[in-house]
Protein 1
Amino acid sequence: MAYIDFIRTAVQESLEKLYGNTGETLDIQITPTKPEFEGDYTVVFFSLLKVLKKRPDELGNQLGEKLLELYPDTFAGFNVIKGFLNLTFTHNALTAFLKNNYGNEGFGRKPETDRTVMVEYASPNTNKPLHLGHLRNIFLGWSMAEILEANGFKVVKSSIINDRGIHICKSMIAWKLFAGGATPESTEIKGDHFVGDYYVKFNDVYQEQIAELVAGGMDKKQAEKEAPIMKEAQDMLLKWEQGDEEVRSLWAMMNGWVYEGFDSTYKRIGVDFDKVYYESDTYLLGKEYVQKGLEENILFKKPDGSVWIDLADVNLDEKLLLRGDGTSVYMTQDIGLAVEKYKDYPLEKSIYVIGDEQLYHMKVLKEICRKLGFSFADEIFHLSYGMVELTTGKMKSREGTVVDADDIVEEMVQTAATLTAELGKVEGSTEEELKQLYETLGLGAMKFYLLRVDPKKRMVFDPKESIDFHGFTGPFVQYTYARIRSILRKSALRPEEITIGQDVEYEKLERELTLLLETYPNVLADSARDMNPSLIAGYVFSVAQLFNSFYTEHSVLKAESSEKQNLRLALSVCTANILKSALHLLGISVPDRM
RNA sequence: GGCCCCGUAGCUCAGUGGAUAGAGCAACAGCCUUCUAAGCUGUGGGUCGAACGUUCGAAUCGUUCCGGGGUCACCA
């Protein structure tokens, strides 16, 4: 049992022994003791004073003494200040934890169960390459999947690829008109970038044509509709829907290029999916449920034949589900896909990693599913995250300020290479090892940077700050790990030969580190409960920080006694295990040296 | 305009009912014959957007206001 839970139970028991069962549930808060006070954990008992009709020092002292009496092996002492009871653990209580867990690489993880959840993330369009915003989405999704798995869930990582629609038709028509048969192979351009270039080309030509029409006296709105290239794109979409062979094969070819590009990016950043849905397969699925809803009078038809749902009763407005011509809209498709997911897997929860600009859309989706009678409606969870902005403001594709995913990853890896070369600590490594190290560090920096912030909040991406590998960063934590590995390589004792003496004493930093390491299982549980990887980033940083203080203050290999050396080795092994485990949950790997 | 989110140190962010509000970066002063200095130690830096309220206790909860953002498409 975690220390904090143990204390809660012990306090409850002590209070009952002291004052009997009051019949009320007592609200007891337990927090780590602030560094300026003496103690390890603090019981905050202000709220009990009124119920038990006691004075603070009276209640605090009685409770403290009872705890010492009942658990002499656990509590060594206490002090009372106002409504705070500060408790100090015995050395043996610390040792009990360390002994049982220091060598356990899976410390904090819960055993696997059959409870299954799906995490949908990435979900790109196929008309342009991934950008920085996608990276936040992807790292978040990947990390949440890992965190849920560590908490005992079976996790299905999924993605819905928006592979059809007017957007890809724009790239297609531009390619047809201007590429002259060029391919990613012939131009040596990565497939997704190649297709994205034609999307940009489309827009350039489109703007020119609008300008021409307006110059010729046409109204701007009219011009936007009349521009020939736009008409051609729309014509292509129509042909696609009719199954026109030529259009379909062009579509398949260009999407194929994009997938090759995406796959190489996914591979480099180390993410994958268990199940990929394609919009071209699923976009018609929602219609039957809309039809059924119409028959059951949950939905209604307007005179023009369009189908709507009225959400006024839950403070939302009317929402279109089928156009007058019977074609489906985005929402219709999402209903279909939501059902499909539950047909494919026995899901307890269906998590969607989607930007917060779609909060309203997801709220409506959930509400419609509920009205249509789907039992899973309440288990749809929108893991929303804020936009990534630049120090200069928002990313805007029209202004060319979009940070490309491949570019930024490459830049981080290059930074890692430059920095490593400057420091010159890994001489003697092979080319292959160095290349691997740069990837580990560059991606570690990138992922940590994007995951260290609360997902719900929008964040600012500062290129200067992102390539700083000091302080609250991935490389800082990785460095701490590498330092420990270095100690362990030089140690005469192997981790499994460590023995911690029963009455070994803990100095301040040893004690603090032990207490912090012990809370890891709770951090793991909290991050799953809150759907928030940044809790792990914050934790892993504080562990690394504290270990570095300990490392500077106390020598492990030249400890003053063999008893001390064993203790410090155990602390080092335990720290390394937790750093590795926690970083893994953020998708970050660790180097043996750096 | 309706609804939702945000406002904490120069900058980027922690802290959602408890003690004198924290960290990183930036600034300044120190620490490498000692297990990796991508590190450590210290200093300066805040009317927690504003006001009122609830509470023994408020950055945290409530109301109002100010400032910033999102969204409310027969777009995806």
Protein 2
Amino acid sequence: MKDILYKYMSRWTSLTEEEQQVIMEQLHIEQFKKGTVLFRQGEVPTRCYFILKGCVRQYSIDEEGRETTSNFYTEEQAIAVFNHHKPERLSDYTFICIEDAVMVVGDLETEQDMYNKHPQLETMTRMMIEENLGQVQEEFAAFIASSPEERFKTLQHRRPLLIDRVPQHQLASYLGITPESLSRIKKRIHQAPR
Amino acid sequence: MKDILYKYMSRWTSLTEEEQQVIMEQLHIEQFKKGTVLFRQGEVPTRCYFILKGCVRQYSIDEEGRETTSNFYTEEQAIAVFNHHKPERLSDYTFICIEDAVMVVGDLETEQDMYNKHPQLETMTRMMIEENLGQVQEEFAAFIASSPEERFKTLQHRRPLLIDRVPQHQLASYLGITPESLSRIKKRIHQAPR
DNA sequence: CTCGTGTCTTAACTTAAGTCAATGCACGTA
DNA sequence: TACGTGCATTGACTTAAGTTAAGACACGAG
């Protein structure tokens, strides 16, 4: 399992084997059962995560009680809430494992210490976040520019496995549509392929 | 003009006056006329920007020739394209000044040098990007969960000045709707306020 | 001044997504 | 086994956004 992480670190840094070893020893890998909540909307997150295996859903419930899924995280994706700007840094979202999962767990308390000890780690983190930001901006731009049907097709193309991995009503909410519409879109696409 | 930047740096770092001075001397502030293109879709960006004054529109043109506005950047916002993951790191977007502008210009070539010389600068950059990522994720989540009309109201609330600052058809494309729909939405809202 | 261009608005019509309601199915439990 | 629950699908109807086309206005160039 750790080799996924090694591969990932090598891709982003020029750390030696030993340096990687040292860092790895301070990391903490944990198993999670399906249904486990990482942290809840309204709580202050104290940890961040990097998924080695499994799937996590991010959602929130608005004032009217409606539930919106804003993301699904899978293998090699990082989960962290950045809300330095919020007065009370409470999370707007709940994160829940919708499959059994294995993750690297980072403690936000000791984050800056780690960076001070291993400056390369801060560079790696910065680059990961930059990449992350780039991807989110790209997804956002694509989302803005497309209709619900196009959004579904894009997802089908970019994350084909996800569609069967998660409940359809959650997928619908992630696409910004109702479950009924998603059902009709799938029907339309199957009837008239191409 | 530079005081905006001082204020900003103080908010994010614990650099001394002198340290700030040193960094500032290496920064480069530039003026731009309305209509200036910072870089074009298909080009490799070599610089990044931080807006002190003015407004920049980010857009792209897809295969079918349709133009989509994916963002408007104004005072105290940073412009940078992160596409480490792309093979050819070409920008998907064009960035154009839609007002006369003043910006801090950063050279991407010397970025890592700067960080090595001033580790605090890397920390500041990381935190800025983290905050940026947090905001984009938040906006994205809100966008997914709302109808075109709600999206317009949210924008009216969060960036009221923007609505009069930019052409309506570009604003419509930024909201993911047609100019006609935007026109109708505004009419609806004015007729039945509240 | 006039013409052309770009921008915003309005109208008539089409289409797709939302809403509400019913059905069928899978699954876990009494 | 029978029942209840949650989920996906389907149908009928409503509504809002897309499409196409036309008109009004501002502005700059010739």
